[in-house]
Amino acid sequence: MKKKFTLAITTPCSENFDRMIPNSKGSFCDSCAKNVIDFSKKTNSEISKFIADNKGKNICARIKSTQLEEEFEYNEMSKINTLKYAAIAASVLLTSNVVGQEKEPVKIEVISPEPNNHVVGKIAVNHQVEEEVSIIVKGKLLDSKTNKPLNNKTYPNLLLTINNSPTPFKVNPKTGEFAIPLKVLKNSNNLSITIVSGDYYFSKTIPFDIKWVKGNVLQQNIIIATEELTKVMIMGGLGVNYIDKKGTREL
Description:
CATH superfamily of the largest domain: Carboxypeptidase-like, regulatory domain
Radius of gyration: 28 Å
Largest sheet: 9 strands, mixed
CATH architecture of the largest domain: Sandwich
């Protein structure tokens, strides 16, 4: 049975997510001594699975404002169906064992000469290795409307990440310039771009061709519309609104 739900927030948390300590489950918040899950970088299916696996638990999360407008769903299997499938599986297993005991197949051994097709020589192994190269991506981060750097007052401390590099790089607030060293596969055809400024977040994929790299440097401007930067907020607690045929009820 499909279960539909939306996400809600009552009171945003004022803690700074960037100062929290990342771990395998999220980022640890010292103020409330809990892990904050970053939903802003998860797909709808990943969020649905997380909610299904953690139903009834108190969840703190970081989320994009646009995700509050979306509807999620996951398949929920009832306990009755689960027990029914387990009983059927056990029945099939018992039946198979009984049939196996009652009718033991007669073993017939067939002896036939093996063909003598032997090739003697050295073994050659072809390894298909994806070659990785080190490059530097240089360019400017610009506003598509003005073709100038983004407003530093509205978007302070702009950080740019390419291909999920472990350390984001700061964009020059006056010129919009950046220079990011990274490793790419020669056969890559795109680069993943992530831009963060305080509570604002943006990601996109841009085309890439190794032929565009000259002297290990890729000249690449990144031009975005500022309305594409999504407001991200940290929640003190995640509210899940489960939707049924009668309407919406919050659990």
